[in-house]
Write a structure and sequence with these properties.
Blueprint: H1 4-7, E1 16-17, H2 21-34, E2 39-43, E3 53-54, E4 57-58, H3 62-66, H4 70-73, H5 76-94, H6 100-118, H7 125-135, H8 143-152, E5 157-164, H9 165-174, E6 182-187, E7 189-191, E8 197-200, H10 219-223, E9 229-234, E10 251-258, H11 262-272, E11 275-278, H12 284-296
Parallel strand pairs: 2-5, 2-9, 5-6, 9-10, 10-11
Antiparallel strand pairs: 1-11, 3-4, 7-8
Helix pairs in contact: 2-12, 5-6, 7-9
The chain binds magnesium ion (MG).
Magnesium ion (MG) is lined by residues 44, 46-48, 235-236.
Length: 298
Amino acid sequence: MKNPIEEIGILHRSNVHIKNKDKLNEILNNIARGGLRKLQVVSDFDKTITKQHEDGIPHLSSFAMFSRIRSAAEDETYQATVKKLRQKYYPIELDPHIPVKDKIKHMEDWWNLSEKAISGLMVTQQDIDDVCLECKPSLRNGCKEFFRDLNDSNVPALVFSAGCGDIVAAVLKHAGVYLPNVKVISNFLKFNEDGTIMGFKDKIIHVFNKNEYAVKNTDFYGEVADRENAIVLGDSLGDAAMTQGMEHCQNALKIGFLYEQIEDSLPQYLDTFDIVLVDDQTMDVPRAIFDYIRDAAR
Ligand SMILES: [Mg+2]
């Protein structure tokens, strides 16, 4: 039995936390055995593909970026509503003392009320592109290279986001990582003929329903049906469940990025993710694991 943790030097950095090394070694061995042809990557977007902070300043989420679009920024009722919602619900999302099952109802309320608030605004694709270029959120260091390597190796990458899909897609596009292997599942805006937002196109995805969300009903599902191994990336506890709706997925290696309330949240993150990266604003670990899988096949 190989010991991949020993071989992947970066896993010995002091901010890398692993609760169950035997289990992680087993997953790594299974995934390496399948090689790149059996691999897919499933990643959250906000604070996972983008950095959690830059020099201590937290990054804007896709919805926060949306709020900066002129028509939204100038709408005082909209601004007051989203601010109030965030003040109420964001602490609940983060609170390590509230069980996830209790958080779900609150997250549903938050997203439903956000959908209501967003409806009626008029936004163009140009507005969306402009706000992305203006805010220019930085992707994790090494993110571009990671996506390039995945595309070069024909490994599908699913970006699975509870954020605003139109913004997510635009950020990926402008950063040059919306490559042919990338698919985005998220809350995309629904417009009427004159460009007014009517809500979201499909069933709402919030931070804690990514497990039940029917990835199954998308064409992506067919593309990855023979990919039984996944690297799963996220910064929220709910992200660890992103492959639960994929029946064929046998080995999911879950990597969690933790930045806020580190001390209080670490135990839960360690129970949920196979690898927890504390205040790591890079893609170094996912890339090292990808390299390990690729090289193991040679
Ligand atoms: Mg996130």
